[in-house]
Amino acid sequence: MSVEQLIKGSLKESGQFSKPVLRFVEQNAEGGKAVVFEGDERYFLKFYTNDLGISMLDAELKGLYALKVTETIKIPGIKFHRWQDNLAMLLTEYIETGPGDPEAEYMAGLSLAGLHSRTYDMFGWHEDNYIGPLPQSNDRNPVWADFYYKNRLHPQLQLAEKKGLLKKTEIPETNNWSDYLSLCLSDVRPVLLHGDLWGGNILYSRQKEAFFIDPSVYYGDGLVDIAMSKLFGGFGPSFYQAYHSVIPPADFYNIKIELYQLYYELVHLNLFGLSYKPGVLRTLGLIRQFSA
Question: The domain 3-93: what is its CATH number?
């Protein structure tokens, strides 16, 4: 039975569809994306056909629900999900997108600030999840600097060294990290993060509403989301104007942005190779200079 037949069968078994029609947007050996038509209605489908993808989609769904219950930001409505027979499916509302103009980005910045205005009592999350296809450890920790090194930077540095992408001599010693992070990351409150906030993970409707997708949630410093949003230039100034009108820039703002971007640069280095190494080395050099 083909993947398309499996998907259609599952949709019909849900009782919500009688004659679903699929138009695949992306498809490969691991899964893909499709638009599902039922009469005049449209939905967006994301699916995986391997064990890793199934686990990733499960974590994504839990992250979407975690964001939804805060009632601070919008996510696409969740229509249907099912994990069975090596097929994971997540069907959501189809967002008819419009341009991410300054007005829409301003509202998105306000929404993110609302999410980051709620504080919690611990860094981390109740279970591990993923950043892209890479595992992301979320062991709870009351100390942000300790959490960020042990659960974010250290695993990616180890992976980069193992893959031959970084030399051991290019990585600062553990005590150097401790001194630097303890100074710069000492005054942080836990907030719920989207966790993977690049420009493609916000959809703007034609009514200028912002819908956040593909999260990698945990409790951390809100500037982690801001740092990721700045890394590839996907947001305009109105987004940050709105955000900082609610949450003013913190002490060590620029240093924190660089430190948090380092995690995502390491992830990209480990996933996509040496073109991301210069950015990694630049930040590692700052840490060595500080500890010299």
Answer: 3.30.200.20
Q: Which residues pair with 35 in a beta bridge?
A: 23, 44
Using DSSP's 3-state secondary structure scheme, residue 36 falls into strand
The reported pTM is 0.96
Burial of residue 80 (CB within 10 Å: 0-12, 13-18, 19+) is middle
Query: Of these residues, 128, 187, 196, 251, which one is catalytic?
Result: 196
One-letter amino acid for residue 248 of the chain: P
Write the Ramachandran bin of 252: left for phi over 0, alpha for psi from -120 to 50, otherwise beta. left
pLDDT in tens, 185-244: 988 999 999 999 999 999 999 999 999 999 999 999 999 999 999 998 889 999 999 999
Give the CATH H-level superfamily of domain 102-291: Aminoglycoside phosphotransferase (APH), C-terminal lobe (3.90.1200.10)
Instruction: Say whether 214 is catalytic.
Output: no
Which tens digits make up the pLDDT trace of 101-121? 999 999 999 999 999 999 999
Residue 232 contacts by C-beta under 8 Å, 6 or more apart in sequence? 198, 199
Integer Cα distance of 74 and 67 in angstroms: 8
- Work out whether strand 134-136 and strand 202-204 pair parallel, antiparallel, or are unpaired: unpaired
CA distances from 141 to 21, 59, 137, 199 (A): 47, 20, 11, 29
SS3 74: strand
d(CA 43, CA 91): 7
